Amino acid sequence: CENFGAPCPVHGQAPAFPAQSLRAASWDVALEEEFGEAVGEIAERLDVHAALLPTINVLPWLHWGRGQESFGEDPVLNGKMGAAAVRGVQKTGRVMATAKHFLANNIENSRWWVSADMSDKMLHEVYLKAWAVLMAESAPELIMTGYNRVQGRYSFTDPKFIDLLRSKLGFQGSIMTDWMATWETLTSGAFTNSRGSPYYGQVGFIGPGSVLGAGVDMEMPYCSKNRDLVAMLQGCSFNGSAAACAADDSLHRAAGRL
Questions:
Q1: How crowded is residue 37: how many other Cβ atoms within 10 Å of its Cβ?
Q2: I want to staple 8 with a disulfide (CB 3.0 to 4.6 A). Which of 1, 131, 143, 161 is the partner?
Q3: Contact 117, 151 (CB under 8 A)
Q4: pLDDT in tens, the chain (258 residues)
Q5: Which residues carry out catalysis?
Q6: Residues 41/93, Cβ–Cβ less than 8 Å
Q7: Strand bridging mode 149-150 / 153-154
């Protein structure tokens, strides 16, 4: 810490909080909101504008490597505790909360391409339920999508899922991908030599207009689909290309939300 100086805590000391799964065991929504307030205060002191929490993924599989970041298997508890954290983090209006990971991100190995297959009934009654409760009881500024596919489609490229979030649940903020989510070298399994990926050996299965076109505003590091999309914009100005002009419309909508 001495190498970095302010606002890093002196002598390397920093606040620490119980894991999210342990806080969930308290069933204490008011306490979770106090936790959010503390995180917001610390973030503000560190000049951090976005806190990458809460995780509200339902935990149906105990081998999920990030299970400690969940509020457990109950979607209502996930939504209520997550909403409390959001309200706390954003209480002063100077730090943004990031609810994650949309949608049905509940498995660790093969998370880059695994598909959470389920009926629409289960989708709405279980996996969207936490998001519905969260949106009814708080207003996160940011939402992060998951790595996985849902019903065979990546949630960050399928307008169906983003439209559910915006139109049905009323989300008005900005949506971002997770880190490296659209990096095809990883999602195809080529980077880890994982032949279990249905996209192994393929390129171009995530189109340049698919992320912004679905309604996702920001790509996190190692993602390049929005960069490729911006490169297409000159086609709208010079030759009126329909694809390029659609890209232009998507970019303007994203800029407006940001």
A1: 19
A2: 1
A3: yes
A4: 445 455 566 666 677 899 999 999 999 999 999 999 999 998 998 889 999 999 999 988 777 778 889 999 999 999 999 999 999 999 999 999 999 999 999 888 889 999 999 999 999 999 999 999 999 999 999 999 999 999 999 999 999 999 999 999 999 999 999 999 999 988 999 998 999 899 998 988 998 778 888 989 888 988 777 666 666 666 665 555 666 666 666 667 777 776
A5: 178
A6: no
A7: antiparallel
Q: Counting Cβ atoms within 10 Å, is residue 60 exposed (0-12), middle (13-18) or buried (19+)?
A: middle
In order, the DSSP letters of 18-50 are: --HHHHHTTT-HHHHHHHHHHHHHHHHHTT--E
Provide the 10 A C-beta neighbour count for residue 103.
27
Q: Is 50 exposed, middle or buried (0-12, 13-18, 19+ CB in 10 A)?
A: middle
**Cis upstream peptide for 60 (omega within 30°):** no
Q: Give dist(CA 105, CA 111) in Å, integer.
A: 8
pTM of the predicted model, to two decimals? 0.89
Pairwise CA distance, residues 252 & 194, whole Å? 37
